[in-house]
Amino acid sequence: MDPRTNPYNPGAGLRPAALAGRDADIEAFEILADRAERGLLGRSIVFSGLRGVGKTVLLAELAGRALERSWLVVQVEAEHTQPDHFSRALATELANAARRQRSWFERTTDKIKQALGSITSFQAAVGAEGVSLGIERLPGRADTGNLQFDLVDLAEIVGAAARDDHIGVAVFIDEMQDLTAEQMSAICRSCHRAGQAATPWFVIGGGLPNLPTRLAEAESYAERLFDYRKIDRLAIDDATVALVEPAADQHVAWDADATQFVLDESGGYPYFLQQFGKTVWDAAAGPDSIDLDDATIGVAEGQEQLDIGFYSSRWERATKAEREFLRAMAPDNGEPSRIGDITERLNKARTQSLGPARASLIGKGIVYAPEHGMIAYTVPGMADYVRRRDEDETE
Ligand SMILES: Nc1ncnc2c1ncn2[C@@H]1O[C@H](COP(=O)(O)OP(=O)(O)OP(=O)(O)O)[C@@H](O)[C@H]1O
Ligand SMILES: [Mg+2]
């Protein structure tokens, strides 16, 4: 069928035509926001899940909702290669968010003046003065250049101005597992302070499944600080909606067996649903239905595209030693592997040399440590991919 009207969007952070199965997560945020606007407390939210489950898309949806509520909205991404970018990005985004708050410049109360002043202080302290609020710095607040102190001040001061306006401050942080321990601790402290001062300052984070553990390592009370929500593959009904609804909007119907086939092959993973939806659509003869033959051809094509893009982009970045490590994980079929087992599979003599491969694979975002002594792929289906490769190579 016509690729011009193809409604599926495989890709990083691309909004799906049907955002399926996230109603409870959206509702959690809406409750938080409604409460905040009434001056009631709520917990910040941390979403965690594997690559391609829809964390970025969900954060963007929630940021859109916060913007519609005229909240101060900050959207940043952590980058493990450039940790000092984070403070500057935060400062610039906060200044931008304040600038969008037109009324803050029309009727400037003391609290608003302090809020704008503290953001200006923070910008100067971290060297992010690109966006000017045209306001003097607030002396002695948010101006140390140390995120651990400054973020607490901002949560208190900017939060207080927002509270007076019956709005909130929502700081969205994607790839949050890549923050340094100090940055995580600063985030925790800011939320903790907001709770004590009853200011509507919230962090909405997204990251890999090890994010909750990393936060708890940074601050022991982090366990109780956040509402932790797992973002995972879609349940059958939701996966069906994700697949069928975008086509139905274009007056194209999926046959039941074609739907079932794609649901099975995708395992309900959002990225795979989009990928297979797209290639099945392109493969289908049309004009207004998709049958099992279309699905079979389209999924094979989609699998090839996943191998070329999603998987091989990761494989190609791995060195020879790292690939051996990835291969040694495959027998666990995507379940976390014990480092001890990997050592054994790679034969004991190489024990010492495992550390660097492990660390650099984590740095590259290809694996993560779900708990001490364990390691897992960050992408679903990687074990099968590694096996497919080995089969191809031995043929
Ligand atoms: N709820 C959903 N329903 C249908 N499709 C979805 C849903 N959420 C995400 N997708 C699709 O899945 C793909 C991946 O989404 P996204 O980039 O948000 O994932 P992610 O969890 O942020 O992945 P990564 O960890 O790689 O950053 C996109 O193509 C998106 O359109
Ligand atoms: Mg993402």
Fold blueprint:
Blueprint: H1 23-37, E1 44-48, H2 55-68, E2 72-77, H3 85-100, H4 103-106, H5 110-126, H6 147-164, E3 169-174, H7 181-197, E4 201-207, H8 211-218, H9 222-225, E5 226-230, H10 236-248, E6 253-254, H11 256-266, H12 270-283, E7 289-290, H13 292-317, H14 320-329, E8 337-338, H15 339-345, H16 354-363, E9 367-368, E10 374-377, H17 382-394
Parallel strand pairs: 1-4, 1-5, 2-3, 3-4, 6-7
Antiparallel strand pairs: 8-10, 9-10
This protein binds adenosine-5'-triphosphate and magnesium ion.
Order of strands, main sheet, comes to: 2-3-4-1-5
Q: Please work out how many helical segments DSSP would assign.
A: 17
Give the name of the CATH superfamily of the largest domain. P-loop containing nucleotide triphosphate hydrolases
The mean pLDDT is 94
Major beta sheet summary? 5 strands, parallel
Structural class: alpha/beta
Number of strands: 10
Assign the CATH class of the largest domain: Alpha Beta
- Work out the helicity level: 40-55%
Order of helices and strands: HEHEHHHHEHEHHEHEHHEHHEHHEEH
Cofactors and ligands: adenosine-5'-triphosphate, magnesium ion
Strand content: 5-15%
CATH architecture annotation of the largest domain:
3-Layer(aba) Sandwich
Oligomer state equals single chain
Radius of gyration, CA atoms, in whole angstroms: 23 Å
* Spatial shape: globular
Q: Termini separation (Å)?
A: 35 Å
The stretches of 5 or more residues where confidence is low (pLDDT under 50) are none
CATH topological fold name of the largest domain: Rossmann fold
Count of folded domains: 3
Give a written overview of the molecule.
- Helix content is 55%, strand content 10%.
- It has 395 residues and is of the alpha/beta class.
- Strand 9 (367-368) and strand 10 (374-377) form a beta hairpin.
- The two termini are 35 Å apart.
- The model has no long low-confidence stretch (mean pLDDT 94).
- Residues 12-13, 55-56, 174 line the site of magnesium ion.
